[in-house]
Amino acid sequence: MTSLLRHQAYEEERLQRVAEKLPCREVQAGTLLSLMGQPQQYSYPSIFIYGHRASGKSHVMQVLLKELELPHATVSCVECVSVALLFEQVLLSFFGCDAASLLPRSPSLSDFVRIYRQQCSQCPAKQTRYIVMEKAELLRDTDANLLPALLRLQELVEDNVTIILLSEIVWDKFRPNTGCFEPLLLHFPDYSKGELQQILSQDKHPSYSAEFYSSYINILLGVFYSVCRDLRELRHLAALNFSKFCEPLADGKVKETDTHKLWRNIEPHLKKAMQTVYLREVSSLQWEQMQQMEEKETGTVRGLSAHTHVELPYYSKFLLIAAYLASYNPARTDKRFFLKHHGKIRKTNFLKKNEKTSNHLLGPKPFPLDRLLAIFYSVVDSRVAPSASIFSQISSLVTLQLLTQVSHDDQLDAPKYKCAVSMDFMCAISRTVNFDIVKYLYDFL
Fold this sequence. Notes:
Low-confidence stretches: 298-308
Helix content: 40-55%
Radius of gyration: 28 Å
């Protein structure tokens, strides 16, 4: 591992500690060290690091800067809601509170540059200073001159300072139309299944062997890797379900090596958990308490979280019902289900050969927005005028991952969606509004 982190300016022991804290990210850390160069020498003015969420960008930067004791300022663009907070955070980290207090109430970029140069003349940099901007994609919503100025801040302040931008989107979506200084690009790829196995296995429980916890992680990834590769979410799911995985072992029913019986015990819980990936509707402690109460009352386990009890606005429930019907019913059957005077249409008359398979086995099909709204206005039990509220609730369902948008973002005239919930969840939602959804499903005629 340390062969990738060799550098003349740093001791071997320090690089060893860095490598131990950065499993599966030694290549990216070694590339960053090469780009940084010698601490006393001028570094490249700006570096752009991009990759998906939970791919180790912030962690690698923080470990390198702290372990190697490099002067740095870490700025979260989520917390710094104004440029004044951003400038204050940088001056505070490098020069102290006295320098930050020199900023006027509404500082401009020129004010920041002027104060920075004044402080540099009093306290010149002995080695490269680093400004790390997390969630840098939010800089696109600030003043048009801020991002180009930050990219060439080294030239403006005449100091050995490097800007490092961390983002989840590519540089092509950053580049201003007017042009700017081009930073060096460094991509952090997603963790592979083997790398996730290696990282998650390090969180082993002290009461059990490393091999036992590694086998549990292998089972967990076998279920979730196809739908979730977010390290944080997988770590949360691993911690949440491990006690259930160990129940037969604690009761003395099986041994650690009996993986098949342990898998049979945890399988229904993991399958239920797939419906609630990324939806933190209840905390881990609340879920464990609910799980215990349900087992005492019914003797059965309903699922990982309160997904079947999720509270939605009244019309959002009907929108979700309409989306489910649009996904699992052929479009030509809408007339049969939602028109009063449709005439008698027998199912066998328009059943084609390729439709003998159940639509629920084939999975949800995409549907246009106008069809969703047409079904919605047919099933809702009151007259609803089309309004911005209805369209905003559709966007909320997409954000909650109950609906999935399958068309491109630039297709504004006819966006298409798919319903992403199960039959059991849909029945639970329809019962809360006294709607019998089974009567409107083509597969159950």
